[in-house]
Design goal:
Helices cover 50% and strands 16% of the residues. By secondary structure, the protein is an alpha/beta fold. The chain has a 7-stranded parallel β-sheet, sandwiched between helices. A two-stranded parallel ribbon has the order 5-8. Helix 1 (14-25) crosses helix 7 (213-225) and helix 2 (53-67) packs parallel to helix 3 (90-118). Bound molecules: NADP nicotinamide-adenine-dinucleotide phosphate.
């Protein structure tokens, strides 16, 4: 029988690369999709820009044709913008939603038709705690990840009769190039009393002290090997505690706590 096959988007560096390496180490066949080639020769790279529908379709078709099966899609490709909403350009706002949310939608749509026909498969979405703890000055990033959570849940219901499962993995701070790659605008910082810069700097300090991408990848690997996927998974004990607080705290109280930290 052929090897289990995974497609990981955004596998050229960071969390996606760690996930691809972990799956590879466990004997999976892995295809990495990204715009630039990753550093690991054993991971076949398929050029793909998730913001271009044709690029996504071609890349997934190529992976499925080569492997003859698709057991796992990890929708990980993503980027971040920051700044006050009123000073965020139309282009940046669209880019954030297009790459993080629509990019995942495009990949999942293509994978869904393959997995439905073969009668099995898993789609794991790399989301963020920002999906449930909305971050000021990263509103569009938070919205992209909240959209991803809901999309995964709804898609999971659609595909369940066909043996296909979905899951969102909500990460908190992970030490990757994501922090330095963030597209930032501090326009209006004076008007907002310095809150834009202070908030994003605080978030960046947390990210630089966050968990390793390998820790996040280990959790994704465990899910990949599980028979039944949970709808949501939060990685890390302290983050799971935050997830519990999210479920029990009244929304207004939760938002005032976030305001105190990042507002
Ligand atoms: N780091 C954190 O603290 C953290 C926390 C929570 C969630 N996350 C999520 O984890 C995921 C991975 O982030 P990371 O920390 O590993 O960031 P990263 O190191 O910056 O890696 C981002 C990956 O996404 C790919 N990518 C970006 N835009 C793309 C596009 N248009 N088409 C195809 N690939 C694209 C990049 O490859 P190319 O540039 O070569 O295309 C790269 O491989 C993201 O979805 C992020 O939101 C990260």
């Amino acid at each position: 029988m052929s090897r289990k096959t995974a497609v990981v988007t955004g596998a050229s560096r960071g969390i996606g690369l760690a996930i691809a390496r972990r799956l590879l180490a466990a004997g999976w066949q892995v295809f990495g999709l990204s715009r630039s080639e990753g550093p690991v020769e054993e991971i076949p790279w398929i050029p793909c820009d998730v913001s271009v529908p044709e690029s996504v379709n071609q890349a997934l078709e190529s992976a499925c044709m080569q492997a003859g099966r698709l057991d796992l899609l990890v929708c990980n490709a993503g980027m971040g913008i920051s700044g006050a909403v009123e000073f965020t350009s139309e282009e940046d706002a669209e880019l954030q939603i297009d790459v993080n949310l629509m990019g995942a939608v495009r990949c999942a749509r293509k994978a869904a038709s393959v997995m439905r026909k073969q009668g099995f498969g898993k789609i794991i979405f790399i989301s963020s705690l920002a999906a449930i703890f909305p971050l000021p000055f990263q509103s569009l990033y938070s919205a992209s990840k909240a959209g991803m959570n809901v999309f995964s849940d709804a898609l999971g219901i659609e595909l369940r009769p066909f043996g296909v499962q979905t899951c969102t993995v909500m990460l908190n701070d992970v030490r990757t190039d994501f922090t330095d790659s963030r597209k930032k605008t501090e326009t209006g910082d004076g008007i907002y009393g310095g809150a834009i810069r202070a908030s994003v700097e605080k978030m960046e300090r947390s990210e630089r002290n966050g968990m390793t991408p390998e820790r996040a990848a280990e959790e994704v690997y465990r899910l990949a090997e599980k028979k039944k996927l949970p709808a949501h998974r939060i990685v890390g004990a302290s983050n799971q505690l935050l997830g519990l607080l999210y479920r029990i705290l009244p929304t207004d109280l939760m938002l005032s706590v976030i305001r105190g930290i990042y507002g």
